[in-house]
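Q: Convert this sequence to structure tokens.
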Amino acid sequence: MHDTSPPPDTPLTARSWFDMGGAEAGPVLPEEHDFALWEKRVDALVILCQGKGLFTVDGLRRALEDMGPEAFETMSYYERWVASLRRNLIESGAVTPTEIAAKIDEIRARGLSYGEVTGRD
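A:
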């Protein structure tokens, strides 16, 4: 297990970087939007993997929090979920980094767009 507890000299009242409760963050814009297909697939993969016992919601959150603040500044919500999913699947032994890299290469070889993959313009 990965220990994410603060160093022993950290005051109990100190916030972790991801604890934003009550902090000024600007307005929340409750805009409705459609999810991209890849975002729906990421969500489905997380649910399926949790259902198979490969990791828990706590494992997903731990990996998200371990990413650090730069990930939250540079990655989208589902990009962070992909990274957390990858880490949890590797930690559970379900896949290896080599297997993931091979699958990514296979997918990239198909083309960057639907048109390239199907031969349509």
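The two ends are 49 Å apart (CA to CA).
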